[in-house]
Amino acid sequence: MTRTVRTRDGRRLAVAEHGDPNGAPVMLFHGTPGSRLGPVPRAMTLHATGVRLLTFDRPGFGDSDRLPDRAVSSVAADAAAVADALGLDRFAVLGRSGGGPHALACAALLPDRVTKAAALVPLAPRDGMGETWFAGMTPGNAESYRQALADRAALRRALDERAARIRADPASLLATIDEGLEPTDREVIRQANIRHELVRAYAASVSHSADGWYDDALALAAPWGFDPSDIPVPVYLWHGVEDRFSPISHTRWLGERIPHVTVDLEPRASHFCALLRMPQLIAWSGARVSWDAMVALSG
């Protein structure tokens, strides 16, 4: 089910709900590019784990209005607006790839509302890591983020062209990122259901424009507007060791600074392998037990 939520400044956010309507609320932040229609666990899985999963298009993506010059930290106000509209006092957050920093922003800036946070294959703050932020990153990603810092007009042109190609052929994005795909990524993307959901999410994300993609790139490369070391809630970080889209050094950096953190680095896994681990992290986010306790109960 999709609904429209209004923010305090009058913008529209497109919000989708999945799973158990009476379950524990978990807010999932999509990747870059992405949308509320991105890959999520099946309805029966969410019902079985008692999770009410909420996703929304970040500003400029899909059917959500744009918020120019937004920072990563801006997402906290939008998440609060969604929670208020749905009558939720407390909720967990989880983000994948470009959504990871946005989940961490909510954990840092909404400490009275966020219960847990998880981030899969996230980026770390560029101003914290310096030039090492780009180390090990695919040439395409590194070029886009360097343009975000030094040549915004070139970035805008490039993303407008890529968005137009995706609108004409939604599967084209998977072809353009092929240079960064590890064999384990290809195995995941070959799964018909995952491939279908990724293509659907990409098509929806740029259905109107490349605004969200462009604004996300700027926000992720700029200062985030919060300090990950200020996050007071339990955080779970997962990263595939072979990831080249968001290199594993980013999760190592975050893991050394977030206070109550579990860091899970999986050998022989890469960026899109996060989609396979996501159902477990969503279940943990909605559970009232620790990760170790949940593993023990499921084992």
Characterize this entry briefly:
By secondary structure, this protein is of the alpha/beta class. The protein has helices at residues 43-48, 75-85, 100-109, 126-129, 139-150, 152-168, 172-176, 183-189, 192-205, 211-221, 248-255, 274-286, 291-298, and strands spanning 2-6, 12-19, 24-29, 51-56, 91-96, 114-120, 235-240, 261-266.
Description:
With 299 residues, the chain is an alpha/beta fold. 42% of the residues lie in helices and 17% in strands. The protein contains 13 helices and eight strands. It has helices at residues 43-48, 75-85, 100-109, 126-129, 139-150, 152-168, 172-176, 183-189, 192-205, 211-221, 248-255, 274-286, 291-298, and strands spanning 2-6, 12-19, 24-29, 51-56, 91-96, 114-120, 235-240, 261-266. It has an eight-stranded mixed sheet, sandwiched between helices. α3 links the parallel β5 and β6 (114-120). α2 (75-85) crosses α3, α5 packs across α6 and α5 crosses α10. The model has no long low-confidence stretch (mean pLDDT 94).
Looking across the biggest beta sheet, what order are the strands in?
A: 1-2-4-3-5-6-7-8
Choose one word for the global shape: globular
Largest sheet: 8 strands, mixed
Helix content: 40-55%
Count helical runs. Answer: 13
Average of the residue pLDDT scores: 94
